[in-house]
Every structure is written in structure tokens, then in C-alpha cells.
Amino acid sequence: MEEDSLKRSVLACLLAGLLLMSVVPVSAATADPKGYLIGSAKPLTAAQVGQLKAAGANVTYAYKNFGGAAAAIPNSKVAAVKALPFVKSVSEDTVRRLDAFTGPNPQEGPNQQYWLDLIDAEKNTTYDGSGVWVAVLDSGFYPNWRDYMREDRVLEEKGIAFVAVLGNPNENQWDVGSDPHGMAVAATIIGSRFVDDGNEGGFGTGFVTNAAGTYWLPGVAPGAQIIPVKVCEPIGCFESAIIAGLDYVTGLKKANPNQPIVINESLGGPGLGAVEKAAIDATIKAGVVLVASAGNSGAAGMGFPGAYEPVISTGAGGWTQGWNAWPSKQWNYQEVPETGVAQVYVVGFSSRQLTGQYLDIVSTGRYLLLPYPCAKLYKDGQITNGTLHRTCASKATPDNAKSALFQHLFISGTSFSAPTTAGIVALALDKDPTLSNADATFGTLGNPASWGPGSLEELLENSATPIPPGSVNITHRDGNSLTETWGSDATGHGWLFVDDVLAAV
What we know:
By secondary structure, the chain is α/β, with parallel strands linked by helices. It has a domain at 3-12 and 97-108 and 127-313 and 372-454: CATH 3.40.50.200. Helices cover 18% and strands 22% of the residues. It contains 9 helices and 25 strands.
């Protein structure tokens, strides 16, 4: 579902789970307030929360691992809140968007998926991400997520949900998702169960796998375990909820210092605020590795948090030979030739790096077959403007996902190149759990020149294969062709191959 159709003002990430709540819920909002993020130098004390309340702020979250809070504040009280001596900043709670552009043990698929072969995943027979937790800050899971994913690969007890300052309260309903995006992101990492009945994939005719049956589509790191953290609502993914998710995962890391943890944020939006930066910095300094999508805005530039240098950002690419001739629904079963990046292209929607932004690498983000039982909201795999403020309720509810025309969809976006990279990071952490970006240079807000990468990010960048600028003619799943052209602003340090990364660890 290609992204620029998806405007920056809507959607982003996931949440759910118990244990060490790193957020303190307080009270509900008064009449006609707005949601705000309040910055402070250190985590707020109970007395300071009381002062905020006395000044007119109804605090939803008082973050525990860095200075800041989220609160509903009437316009008439904003000045009083700003005047408090411990308050360093007050900014509106903005929304991020999701960067999708779009039972029995199942058998292995008849051939390697080209998007895994394209990153040399088939060469790795030693590491599978075992022992690594990947927190997916996204839109949550549907209640029937077990139809798609192995139950032992999802840490249900740690799943959790957060809402925005003015969002509807929930009871940690991480498995009552507002969109199947979170399941698709998780499946990119750990894999999914796929029932091929001739109506799957969303394009063409026939069977995706060449024959009816139940198959297992492997993920990049099938041994990793997912922590679903729902931070998105039908109207969007607000910073206050995303930051609460970061705070939660930071608390998990501090309680389990030897546990390797990766965060995936397949979402983004314009600008980096003071409280969000403080949250990201605290998370990375604690040893959590943060991976984010570059965005789907093409020449309009990257979104944050991906554009922030201490975060590992990922653009989207594809394979020039990915499909059999239309109208066949099958991907090309020929093995991807081991010729470096000769058949790799960078898609037009993948965000280009502008001044003050940092694009690290590019990975697979074009037409991955993933669980997405909201396919009727999309035309030919691409999101339409009419879906911007809708959930799946018009065709498939979370309780009745199978009313959807499709259960899986060939789907695109940096939303899926990000978890591909997060999966590669999980493989690296499986080999060496001590790797992190905690030694990054965090610099100051508003001064991108003062930011610098951490050692794990540099390892990935140095092991990437550079992608030269280029132009190719691609045949899409509707049988039409499109010329994809990219320059050096679209490629970062290049394409990640699993075997090269693991050799560098």
C-alpha cells in the first residue's frame, strides 16, 4: 500500500503487555483541552506532577526513564504550565503515520521467498534470533493472530497498549488492533502461516505457491520473540503513546540488563520533539537497539524517528525479476543470483535523505507476502485516500478478520524494510548479545551535525554493499510497468546482506 497516499497525519505502531509499567497513568482531561508533551530535565517527582495538576494540566503519562510527561491542557492554562520552573518545553502531541505503502504445523513453502533470498538469508544456517526480544511499536494484533503466527514466538505476557493523551482508555488491549499492520510487521521478522486457496495475495490468478495447501513463510529471524506494543489508534499514532511505549521497553531493558532487545518503529512524522528525543536517547543509552522506517515520502524526505542519527533507519528496495508473467500470482522461483546489488532497485516512494537527516541502509520493502486481512481497503495493494481515517470495520473487524477477501497481501513500504533490518539485527544479537548503539553521539535537539551513530549502526553501515544511482523498468503485479529511478540520496550506505553482517559481528 504505497505511502504518500497515507498522509503524515495518520497512523503508526503497536503495543501491549504487562510487567514493570514504565508509565504512571493519572487523570482524565477537562473541557476542550489539547494533548501536550511536557519536557523536564529529569523524571518528574510526585510533587511536580501535583504542581502540573494545580496549574491546569491533567497528566496522562509521567514517564519514568527520562524527563517528561503527556497531559491534556486547556488553552487558558498552557502559559501557567510553561511558567513552572522545572518545565523545559511544552509542545503539542502530534501524530505519526504507519509506513505501509501499501493449528497444525504447516509445511515449508516450496521455494525460498525472493525477498529473503535477496538479502542472502538462505546462506545463514547458524543464527535465527533466538534469545532476542523484538518490541513492535505499532497497531497491535487482531484477536485471531494465532491463525498467522506461532504462539511461542509472541511474548503475550509482555504485550501492552498505550493511548494518546485524549485517546479512548483501554485495558492493555494489544490484541484488539485497529489495523493489521502490526501483525504484518511482526510476521516479517518471525514468519507467518499461509493458507493458499487461490484467493490469496491480492494480485493475479492461481496459487501463489503453485498449489493449494498450508505453508510456513519464514521470517528474517524466526527464533526471535515479539513483544506487541500497541501505540496506534484508528485516527493515528500519537507521540504521547509512542513515547510511553519507548519508556515501557526501556524499563524492561533495565529490569533485564543482559536481555538483548530491539525496537521496531515502522512509522514516522515530521520533526523531532524534545520529549521524543529524550525518550529515544534514554532507550538507546539503556542498550535497546532502535530500528525505524525511513518513510514513504520519496523526494519530500525522511520521517522521524528514522532521520535521527542514533536510530537505525531503513529505506525500501526490491528485486527487478520478482514476478512471473502477469496474470500469474506466483513470485519468481528462480534463485536470486548472487551478484551483489546488480538486480536491486530502490522504490520511488522510499524517502530520500534531505539535509539534517540520516538514511542508514536499504532493505527489502517491495511486495512481501504478509498477513493483512484488511485487503479490501486497498486497490491492487496500494492504500487509497478513502482509507485514511477508517479501520477495518467496514469489511473485516478484528473479531471477524476472515470476512476479508484476503488473509495475506503482497504489500510494500518502508514499514517492512524496517522489520527486515530489525530481524537482521536480531540475528547479529543472537551471535553477540552485547552489541548496541549505546555509544552513539546524541548531541542537541535542532543540531543534526551534533548527532553520531553507535557502534552497531556503524557495523551495519560498513558491512552494507553500496547501491549506485540507477534507473530500471519494473513490471508490477497488475501487469503494468513503471520506471524506478534513484540517486545517492535514496541509498544510504547500501544494501544489507545477512551473511556479510554476520561475518562482521
